[in-house]
Amino acid sequence: MNTQQLQCFLYVAERLNFTKAAETLFLSVPTVTHHIKSLEEELGILLFYRNSRVVKLTEQGEKFYFDAKDIFLRMQDVRDQFHNYMEQETVLLRIGCMTDTELEKLEPVLKQMRKSYPHIRPKVIVRDFYDLKNLYENQQLELAIATYGLSTQSSFKKLRVYESYAVMPPDHPFAKETELTFEQIADQELITLPPKCIPFQRGNKFQENLTLHVQDHIHIVSEGETESILLAKCGYGIAILPGFLIPPQEDIISIPIVDTKNVEYGIYYRSREKHILSFIRSYMDALNRKK
Fold first, then answer.
1. Phi, psi of 118 (to 5 degrees)
2. In Å, how far from its chain's centre is CA 54?
3. Residue 256 · residue 164 · CB < 8 Å
4. Measured distance CA(274)–CA(287) in Å, rounded
């Protein structure tokens, strides 16, 4: 019997839902199921009744719940005492992100981390997608906030799925539209990001059309989202940006482009240490507050 088995049992017992328990623990449903099955085999009892519609504790499971809770809390207490001793040393937490837009979201997260983990010293590194990929794969970052595809060698917590948007000033002729297609904006001067900011996605027809379009039309390639939005506000064209790069501003209009492939955005991490998981939860909260 170990803490992972007990934690999985307690989370499922309190939620009566394997999927919700797995999401809270940053585990897959099969992993949670495996831990509970192993615990049942070790104890020689059935802990849950489970079918396609309902999950509930067995009578033996209900009795075991209180013992499991007590054992888990005692194990946590011992581990916390050990961690408190070990945490006297300063630990560097290297966080990589792709743009300056993430820095605003990081502020409340790092403030909370300073209170909860005073021994942690964060270092924030802003690089383009490919530099970030190189740093992460060479284990020079503990965390990387990026679009999907950065690494296949570690865990990825998807935080949001973003559409691409056409960004323009409020007086633009398209500003009152609720959505746009590529055909509608094809005769406009466009402001795009280079691949180092948003890597090319296979099967993304919009990116394919955009790549072909800019070869034969006047357009601007900006160095980042800040320049793109500035130029769009000044009337130099329509900026094409994914939603996570668009800050809330009253002097710009963002209209979804309907024929695009959505961009997955989240956090890459290798370790399940307590401060890492705490960072991920805090960043999720900060992201939700920015909706």
1. -65, -15
2. 30
3. yes
4. 20
Q: Is 202 left (phi over 0), alpha (psi -120 to 50) or beta?
A: beta
Spacing of C-alpha 77 from chain mean position: 30
Amino acid at residue number 135: L
How many whole angstroms from its chain centre is CA 237? 30
pLDDT in tens, 188-220: 889 988 777 766 556 666 666 777 766 777 688
Residue 11 CA to residue 39 CA, distance in Å, equals 14
Residues 34-47: tens digit of each pLDDT: 999 998 999 898 99
Please report the DSSP string for the chain in residue order.
Answer: --HHHHHHHHHHHHHS-HHHHHHHHT--HHHHHHHHHHHHHHHTS--EEE-SS-EEE-HHHHHHHHHHHHHHHHHHHHHHHHHHHHTTS-EEEEEEESSTHHHHHHHHHHHHHHHH-TTEEEEEEE--HHHHHHHHHTT--SEEEEETTS-SSSEEEEEEEE-EEEEE-TTSTTTT-S-B-HHHHTTS-EEE--TTTS---TT-HHHHHHHHHHHHS-EEE-SSHHHHHHHHHTTS-EEEEEGGG----TT-EEEEBTTSPPEEEEEEES---HHHHHHHHHHHHHHHHT-
Residues 140-153 have a mean pLDDT of 88
Compare 237 and 288 and report the one with higher pLDDT: 237
pLDDT of residue 145: 92
Q: Which pLDDT score is estimated for 53?
A: 81
Dihedrals phi, psi of 42, to nearest 5 degrees? -65, -40
- Contact (Cβ atoms closer than 8 angstroms) between residue 229 and residue 236: no
Give the pair of three-digit tokens for residue 127. 């690089």
